[in-house]
Amino acid sequence: MPATIRDVAAEAGVSVATVSRVASGGDYPIGAETKAKVLAAIERLNYRPNGMAKGLTQRNSRLVGVVAPDMSNPYYPEITRGIEDVATARGYQVLSCSTDRDPGRARSSIDALLAKRVAALAVIGGGDEVVLPDGDLEAYGTEVVMIGRATRRFSTVRVENAEAGQEVGRHLLALGHRSIGFVAGHRGSSASDERLRGLRRALKDAGVEHRSDQVANGDYTEAGGYDATRRLMHASAPPSAIFAASDRMAIGALAALRDMQLRVPDDVALVGFDDIPMAEYLRPALTTVSVSAHRLGTEAMGLLLDGTGRPRRPQHLRVRTRMVIRESCGARRT
Amino acid sequence: MPATIRDVAAEAGVSVATVSRVASGGDYPIGAETKAKVLAAIERLNYRPNGMAKGLTQRNSRLVGVVAPDMSNPYYPEITRGIEDVATARGYQVLSCSTDRDPGRARSSIDALLAKRVAALAVIGGGDEVVLPDGDLEAYGTEVVMIGRATRRFSTVRVENAEAGQEVGRHLLALGHRSIGFVAGHRGSSASDERLRGLRRALKDAGVEHRSDQVANGDYTEAGGYDATRRLMHASAPPSAIFAASDRMAIGALAALRDMQLRVPDDVALVGFDDIPMAEYLRPALTTVSVSAHRLGTEAMGLLLDGTGRPRRPQHLRVRTRMVIRESCGARRT
DNA sequence: CTGAAAGCGCTTACAG
DNA sequence: CTGAAAGCGCTTACAG
């Protein structure tokens, strides 16, 4: 059994109230001598206040919950890392769950998190598998932020996907491309939809139309990107450029094009999305769009744990992207 | 304020003890009618037992802590995902922390985790930045498992790195290579050390010696792999094959070789480690060693949460690897 | 089968 | 500046 506050009180010869006050380290006035005694006792007994008891009395678990589709997809842990960084700086810890895009798993994760009385909850991903029981959230005083998903009910932090898609479109148009294939993420991904919308806006502004057979689903995986690219290239009028909604799919596209004996960027230009670390080390180096996943996390936590403790009205933040031009789009001849 | 057990008791017209018993869902005998009333009240009030209170009385937080160097490196979240899967199946949740290989951060993470009274603790990574206060662990009854790090004090789950390295060595020898460069992970990485040891054993068995200038540090990153490869190739007698201790470094190596106008595998053979999803989609497709990070996590949790609740003596598990032969090693002509 | 009561380890008015 | 006591929301012997 670890030492409790009573043990420390006995050891120091003071009341538990006093121990509590020095252990918590607030600015409650304590006699210098008393404080020293208590500190010594804490040290001697290796006392570490029980977080559950603290949470219970203070009505604050100091826990923030994170729910993401799948923590084994690098994008989510990176956001979570951002969340962790600001959370720990504020004395919170993160409890994370994967839903696998399954509503059932999502529901039980949320339940477990609410049972643990998380002070804040971040829901990552544009899917709709997570449904939040708003009555309970209010009762528990749990602040919520959605990352990458649109809603008015809660605060949101989102990537400027449409703007980025538009920028990619304009870039490719400027390079002379008029037929641009789009490798989409999985069905229902709002991020992918928005990127496509941006691309189409750019094309429309240039008077170029975009057909539905110029879009193929790639499921956000290398394999999906590979297959989608083959489908795109086997159309009656294959595109001269491909925009993949993620770098992982772009890597699949690169393999597919290579296997079809097509050179990138000479025969087909390629642009990805995310700017994962290895994008720079592909050959040709991948032109892509950089988004700071870490930043999404820090911004989100900033919204939740702003220190006031007062629930505010939902806020909506947007995180900028930055296009990184390397070799695969053909803008830079190698 | 969310409904408490008293609210439910009042609503159902029974004692809190009774509510506790039906809410906990054990096999404690309860009258059918009473049970129905309580269940109805729980439903009506949307009662969800407070996890902190439960934890406090039951002396079990139902929390497992995970400490890893950096959750933004995909390898760790994947292990963590394995941990999560078995943890949630057993009614636990995971609290995760990144240390950035900084002893200070590690210390405060461990402290925070112990304060939360985690029932179990998994320490991931071969580094030594994490030091565990054994006295406290015993007092708290916290079970510990180290993933990827050798120790007798706690249970461990480790990858058969040396065996894998040896297998790679033999494979490369069989292909005729006599000079094999090794791209190592960061300094002090036991995984990297073990893989190198295995490689050297294979070489030694074949009567081939391996010099220290045939090893270059690559820090487990693409950039590190790139630079290390250049250094290796600039030696007086450049290797005919390169074994990188991670796929990410292998990708850097691939770029470096390409930039040096060297063809893989014709001029230089290349083997990675990890078998990340995109290894198959590189061109040439990467020959590598597959390790199930997810499995490391499930095995580790299996050791901790075995349901007996009784602390056992440390157990030591080893997880097999599997060499995946693709194009980059030259075994399969493309 | 059901309930009253003590207790888990803290915090925090309240009184002095 | 210090302490006694109530209370946070549960569980669990113990008694009936």
The gist of it:
Chains A, B: Keywords: DNA-binding, Transcription, Transcription regulation. The structure is a homodimer of 334-residue chains. In chain A, the strands form 3 sheets. Chain A has a 6-stranded parallel β-sheet, sandwiched between helices. A 4-stranded parallel β-sheet of chain A has the order 7-6-8-9, with helices on both faces.
Protein model, in words:
2 copies of one chain form a homodimer. Chain A is an alpha/beta fold and 334 residues long. The first copy, chain A, has 3 domains: 5-49, 434 Repressor (Amino-terminal Domain) (Orthogonal Bundle); 59-159 and 293-319, Response regulator (Rossmann fold, 3-Layer(aba) Sandwich), CATH 3.40.50.2300; 161-292, Rossmann fold (3-Layer(aba) Sandwich), CATH 3.40.50.2300. In chain A, 42% of the residues lie in helices and 16% in strands. Chain A contains 12 helices and 12 strands. In chain A, the strands form 3 sheets. The first copy, chain A, has a 6-stranded parallel sheet, sandwiched between helices. The first copy, chain A, has a 4-stranded parallel sheet with strand order 7-6-8-9, sandwiched between helices. A two-stranded antiparallel sheet of chain A has the order 10-12. In chain A, helix 1 (5-12) crosses helix 3. The longest helix of chain A has 16 residues, at 190-205. Chain A is elongated, with a radius of gyration of 26 Å. The first copy, chain A, starts with a helix and ends in a 10-residue tail after the last strand. The mean pLDDT of chain A is 93. Chains A and B meet through helix 4, helix 5, strand 2, helix 6 and helix 7 of A and helix 4, helix 5, strand 2, helix 6 and helix 7 of B. The first copy, chain A, binds a DNA duplex (16 and 16 nucleotides) through helix 2 and helix 4. Chains A, B: This is LacI family DNA-binding transcriptional regulator.
